[in-house]
Amino acid sequence: MSSTTAPIANDPSFENVWQELVYRGLVHVSTDAAALEELLAGEPITYYCGFDPTAPSLHLGNLVQILVLRRLQLAGHKPLGLVGGSTGLIGDPRPTAERTLNTKETVEEWVGYLRAQIERFLSFEGDNAARMVNNLDWTAPMSAIDFLREIGKHFRVGTMIKKDSVSARLNSPAGISYTEFSYQILQGMDFLELYRQYDCVLQTGGSDQWGNLTSGTDLIHRVEGVSVHAIGTPLITNSDGSKFGKSEGNAIWLDAQMCSPYAFYQFWLNTDDADVATRLKVFTFLTRAEIEALEQKIADEPFRREAQRRLAWEVTALVHGVDAATAAIDASQALFGQGELASLDADTLAAALRELPNITAAPGITIAQALVETGLCASLGEARRAVSQGGVSIDNEKVADEAALVTGALPGRVSVLRRGKKTLAGIFITE
Question: How far, in Å, CA of 379 to CA of 366, rounded?
Fold first, then answer.
């Protein structure tokens, strides 16, 4: 794999950024498409996307929105990255149940985390420098009476209950609280405030947020008498219809402490052939020609998984940096005997081993015991036979004695146990 990544730039083969967004499958729903194409092909506009601090990190679904912000900025437009210090105190309605409200202190702390993550992807220099905003700045000073008089009077309950997220909850046993029901009003007010402060005329977001996006466009039309725009990106799913980026209920987080660069890299590397071209379009800055060439590789030589390796490299380097992506590749190769395990840094090696079957053991555990406790062998007898047949190695060195001790000789007091060519386990030796 090349040690360089694709330039962070829009593809010059497209006439304008709207056409590139459409090619990349990033427009699921929008206001007037023809008007949007004309708008985005013209003079710079100000646009925004909001991110609620409902967790201490953003995830892959948020990355879709961040990259849309960046693509539009590369086309000359001016991004506003909004972190919802006020909307994060409420949370948008989930389809099934009421959210647990986080404390104000927690939300404030998470605002800082999310802001730092978003800032890494945008440029804050030049004529179209990005700007970060927090909706708590204009929501907190407003009294409940002012909110109802100045904003609430423009919303019709009949329209509000038709929104998908609200309708789903109204028809569920959980129902919906007035707090979450009001979320769409707050998001609509955000768009109005940004229109007034920065002449912001476009909001982007996931298509599942379409009701909230149009709350803003409708409010601005009612109050200011002007038409503004919204773009809803598709929800990214796998070709089999399953949720993308979810494994046993866990999101793929952008924070390296919540999802290690190694695990992040492996997630992309394991992309199904049927999904990889879509992922390349959405999550990388590879050009149309480069993506088409990789699609051909998938058709001609799928066993080489060249497209998956390029996808994993590009997105991991984009999110975690080239050094972390390189370390993830080195760890992957070393685990399978194509590199020096001892040359890996302790954190990367530990993260890699946590993705394998693994145990924590006291000093003095034998190879045979480790084979059984890690599940690589079903019994001590099977473990002894595996060793005697030459099919076991520790830290990429063949094992001849089943009574030999696992020493945790690799960085961080760990060892890599292997049975056969591809069955691996990690062993963490306690102090």
Answer: 13
